[in-house]
Write a structure and sequence with these properties.
Structural class: alpha+beta
Number of strands: 7
Strand content: 15-25%
Helix content: 40-55%
Strand order of the largest sheet: 1-7-3-4
Distance between the termini: 48 Å
Shape: elongated
Number of domains: 2
Radius of gyration: 22 Å
Number of helices: 6
């Protein structure tokens, strides 16, 4: 199923670049060889660059605690979740804490009683992609095909402009799908007892 989805995305990119669509990544055409080499890297790069909700997971790091302490300034080491692309945050409860990603490990300073949660990006399957993200990948691949395969710089430039504009729209669409954050009432309470300019400076 995922392979079929990848081919469909690639075919759309071919149409955008003005080349014959591929039937598979091994059909012997120049565009299939190019897409075979660049498709996955492009998808992973775009997934890593923004906190896409459909590609975000949380994981209890205590389930992957390593016995040996790290050889860093941190006191605890955890095995990073499988398939992790990038880390959004590491939290104790709901409080973000300092961390370091070292190779396939996550290093933190926490106590044995702490519940340590990581929020991270993973390589979401194409069937999970939202339409705006699918179109973003189509534009990115079409840009690269136009520049590297057909050598049509004008088409490549047009596709890049579409991709960059769609990137902004995609982030907005994804952000609007999130639940509204709670209003910080504690700041409002502090403002009532003091000067309003101090309140805004401390935000």
């Amino acid at each position: 199923m995922a392979q079929n989805e990848r081919i469909e995305v690639s075919r759309l990119a071919c149409f955008g670049a003005g080349v014959d669509p591929i039937d598979s990544f091994d059909d012997g055409t120049t565009q299939s060889e190019f897409l075979k080499a660049w498709y996955e890297l492009t998808a992973e790069a775009e997934l890593s660059l923004y906190k896409w909700r459909f590609a975000t997971k949380t994981f209890d790091l205590k389930l992957s605690l390593l016995a040996d302490p790290p050889d860093t300034r941190y006191n605890t080491a955890y095995q990073a979740p499988n398939g992790i692309l990038s880390v959004d945050t590491v939290m104790v409860g709901k409080i973000p804490i300092d961390y370091d990603r070292h190779q396939d490990q996550i290093h933190t300073n926490d106590s044995a009683d702490d519940d340590v949660i990581i929020q991270y990006r993973f390589r979401a399957d194409e069937t999970l992609w939202n339409p705006y993200f699918t179109l973003l990948i189509v534009y990115r691949l079409a840009t690269m095909l136009s520049f590297s395969v057909t050598r049509k710089v004008d088409v490549a430039s047009a596709m890049k402009t579409l991709a960059d504009e769609h990137w902004k729209k995609s982030k907005t669409e994804d952000a609007q799908a999130q639940t509204n954050r709670k209003l910080n009432l504690r700041r409002l309470v502090r403002a009532r007892g003091g000067r309003i300019d101090k309140f805004w400076r401390n935000r």
